[in-house]
Amino acid sequence: MEFLTPPPVRRLTGARPEIVRPADSNGNGNGNGNGNGHRAPTFVGGRARVAPATIAIDRMQVEELSVDYGRKRAVSEVSLPIRQGEVLALIGPSGCGKTTLLRSLNRLTELTKTASSQGRITLDDVDIATIEPTALRRRVTMVFQQPNPFPMSVFDNVAYVLREQASRRPKKRALHGAVEEALARAGLLDEVRADLDHPALRLSGGQQQRLCIARALAANPEVLLLDEPCSALDPRSTQVIEDLIVKLREDVAVVIVTHNLQQAFRVADYVAFMYLGEMVEYASASQLFSAPREQRTKDYVSGAFG
Amino acid sequence: MTSTQAVAAPPAPRRNESSASWRLTDRLGLAFAWFLGVLFCVITAAIVLYLFVEGIRYLRPSLLVTNPSAGYSESQTGGFFDPLIDTVVIAAMSMAVAVPVGIAIAVWLSEFGRPAPLARVVESTIEMLAGTPSILLALFGTLLFEAPWLGFLSRTSGTVVFGRSFFAAAAMLSLLALPLVVSSVREGLQAIPSHVREASYAVGKTKAATTRRVLLPAARPSVLTGSMLGLGRVIGDTAIVVLLLGNTLTNDPSGSVPILSALRGTGSTLTSYVYYNAPTGDGDQPGKAYAAAFVLLLMVLALNVGVDLIGRRGRDLRWNS
Lengths: 306, 321
What we know:
The complex is a heterodimer of chains A (306) and B (321).
Chain A: E1 17-20, E2 47-50, E3 57-69, E4 72-84, E5 87-91, H1 98-104, E6 115-123, E7 126-127, H2 133-139, E8 140-143, H3 154-162, H4 172-185, H5 189-192, H6 205-218, E9 223-227, H7 235-248, E10 253-257, H8 261-267, E11 270-275, E12 278-284, H9 285-290, H10 295-301
Helix pairs in contact in A: 3-4, 3-6, 4-6, 6-7
Chain B: H1 24-58, H2 61-65, H3 81-112, H4 116-131, H5 134-145, E1 156-157, E2 160-161, H6 166-190, H7 194-201, H8 207-218, H9 220-236, H10 239-244, H11 258-264, H12 270-277, H13 286-313
Antiparallel strand pairs in B: 1-2
Helix pairs in contact in B: 1-13, 3-6, 3-9, 3-12, 4-6, 5-6, 6-9, 7-8, 9-13, 12-13
């Protein structure tokens, strides 16, 4: 995979940039890789990342998870940890089971009639199969590929999550603080402060997606799942959301499914490469992109297939 | 929602493909399609125009505020105040039943629909209902509402139940509107991408909460469209009104409770008024019939415009699927 232009470099204000380079890179912070026999893709050349999170807490544990749709196996015996303080990216070609794995984490797969699963997933050492689905999904919230604000005002989109099921209570005034806080965490508050009563579907695509993130954060979840959150967005909105993801990892465990290797590289601390339902490799982002252990991973990240 | 705009200047306008290069049969087919399209426009325009001209000729403001009465000449037979009011009343009553029930059925079919065999039965029942001639419903209604245990809904004398009342007619008319409401709401619900539902489940909402706060608001344009279509069907129906509303010249209440007595009694609507006064009807006052038909036409046209406006309004706020 040769990129004509180097991938955008993240700059977070206030964050101490830590230049991460492949071991044999020769120090050009923004270089286009190097030609000295290194097999890693060119975009590994340089990235400025915020320092790794100081703490990493185990939140979820996937143990030998298999998911079938009817007779078709979508995810096959996957085990991996999900930690707060780190962003986990699931990468792999279409149909490799990464979205299914993601949806298993808050039991959304159960909405598919033919789906069945084996294995165990724990959230804070409790098997999620024993947690009531609605309670689980408030602790493990999800953002989807297409921005999908609900057909109500910006305020109500967030308040909807905070209120009891279909109720309209508590009233607006009581929720104002919490709604603004969620919008602020998603980096949207300044843009919509004056338009809280406008229909959410009138926002731009990038703003809609950040509203969806605000909505997912409003429940104060322990884990945030993102299913290709930027694939319908322009590069500018993508960058805003990527910055946001890195900021969020301190407070929530973030799992992101992405088709975009550069994106996985930019935001993830750990990467799991999946292929045909199997998890081929799970490693830290720098290792997986610069020195993958498996041949299939190597082929995929260097663009041989996918 | 994407804001991509063409930057390059548009290329010079090019005419569409010309049918001159087509095969003869295709050209004939196209010509035939054109002819039919224009023909039906002309037929519709002729009906509307004819009723307009005749209606304006015979419509007097006084007709709208006087009641019908028996007589032999234009000056004796009065206007159609009661039929006009009754049309509105009966439409409101039918829709008060058809809309909530229709929404409930549509939600169940679209969002729950289990057990699946039951859903299929409900579905084909609704379809069958949509295809049932209204005279059959009317006939069934006369049978049903003459039953002794439904006597409280209409006039009774001794043990004989008259079986004709606003209640009876509205109940049967609501069955006419129901399939239209169900299919429209159902389509509206199914047009909502599944990821929108999942987004609501994914923040811990139940199916019930999702339906009430997300799906039904999103399907509101379809609910309104379905209601308008059903309303048009109810206003325009004649058979049920003639058989089940009693088709009396003026309202004939039964009982002494203020509103209930009127609804237990009989009356007539604009359609049955037109039926009665048409040249082939018992009343034979064509002028009155034209005037009433004109008013009816205006109501239906207004409904159509309403449907169009609502359909247009909900269109821009959608998700990508």
